[in-house]
Amino acid sequence: MNDQGLAQQEPRERLRAVGLRVTAPRIAVLEWLATNPHATAEEIAAGVRERLDSVSTQAIYDVLNACTRARLLRRIEPAGHPARFETRTSDNHHHLVCRMCHRTEDVDCVVGLAPCLEPSSSAGFVLDEAEVVFWGLCPVCAGRPQTESHHIEESA
Amino acid sequence: MNDQGLAQQEPRERLRAVGLRVTAPRIAVLEWLATNPHATAEEIAAGVRERLDSVSTQAIYDVLNACTRARLLRRIEPAGHPARFETRTSDNHHHLVCRMCHRTEDVDCVVGLAPCLEPSSSAGFVLDEAEVVFWGLCPVCAGRPQTESHHIEESA
DNA sequence: TTCGTTATCTTGACTCATTCCAGAAAACCT
DNA sequence: AGGTTTTCTGGAATGAGTCAAGATAACGAA
């Protein structure tokens, strides 16, 4: 298990860098998220509990909130579904979200980046972020007959 | 109260057009939303109850869901806060949301409209909507010292 | 290395927005 | 008017997330 050394070192330093204490739950969350982006709090808890024998749900939320506030993580909240987290990349990338299975993928809004950040009128608002979500169906769900519970209304 | 005739007729026809039954709660919700955009279910319930003496909360949600599915209403769900509804459905405008008071305003993404709808790589997704939310502080909140409960972390 | 301070974690209760359910009431087709 | 089917009522339930109080662990100083 020596090749984990580096990966394990990374979160530790990132925590220190933002002045957060280095704890087992935090390291586990950051490490797990590094390889499982866009996970929900519940999924993260499950993943973390596989390597740490016991972590309270509250601890997971605390870790996620603390890291999000410290900008180590980014929280994305697709409408109507639990929040998802990703290890914070400093770039302002956006997301594709499947309406059916909630699968979430990153996209770089190459063309639209600059325009998106400057709405035509800001109505006096002081803006700090432009969040873009592209809604649709993932390849799997697009090729599958719609279930009753998730029909997408097609009526124009 | 005769000058309400037209305003009252409008929702009625819109409901018929999409095959929804015309009921008092539905008309009241649509009418109220026409003059109070970006309202939450709770606010809508309160507004509607001023003219209809009694409407169940469930009815409000049913109306909102039915109308949203039928595209008479558009639901916007700013991360971490209750859903809001608006009657502007046909144009693909975006929103400014105040992180502090949740005030929500419309913006037409003049420049970015087309680019925003075409992410560089769609990863096989079949997209049907691009949702853009500009986060920041509204004029009122921007000029006010931050409360503890809503501090915006400024640490880079 | 041990100690004290303070941040973090545990447990468990709780909130809030929203949905589910079963039956009653109302809308629409004929 | 009559029969269907949709919608509304009332109340219970869900799920995601937070609050609170005390136990525990991290880290800086001695």
Task: Give the topology.
Two copies of one chain form a homodimer.
Chain A: H1 5-17, H2 24-35, E1 39-40, H3 41-51, H4 57-69, E2 73-76, E3 84-87, E4 94-98, E5 104-107, H5 113-117, E6 126-137, H6 139-142
The structure holds a DNA duplex (30 and 30 nucleotides).
Describe this structure in words.
The structure is a homodimer of 156-residue chains. Chain A starts with a helix and ends in a 14-residue tail after the last helix. The first copy, chain A, folds into two domains: 3-76, Arc Repressor Mutant, subunit A, CATH 1.10.10.10; 91-155, Dna Ligase, domain 1 (2-Layer Sandwich). The radius of gyration of chain A is 18 Å and the shape is globular. Helix content of chain A is 37%, strand content 20%. With 156 residues, chain A is α+β, with helices and mostly antiparallel strands. In chain A, helix 1 (5-17) crosses helix 2, helix 2 crosses helix 3 and helix 3 crosses helix 4 (57-69). In chain A, the strands form two sheets. The first copy, chain A, has a three-stranded antiparallel sheet with strand order 1-3-2. Chain A has a three-stranded mixed sheet with strand order 5-4-6. Chain A has helices at 5-17, 24-35, 41-51, 57-69, 113-117, 139-142, and strands at residues 39-40, 73-76, 84-87, 94-98, 104-107, 126-137. Chain A has six helices and six strands. The relative contact order of chain A is 0.12. The longest helix of chain A has 13 residues, at 5-17. Chains A and B meet through strand 4 and strand 6 of A and strand 4 and strand 6 of B. Chain B binds a DNA duplex (30 and 30 nucleotides) through residues 20-26, 40-42, 54-59, 61-63, 65-66, 80, 82-83.
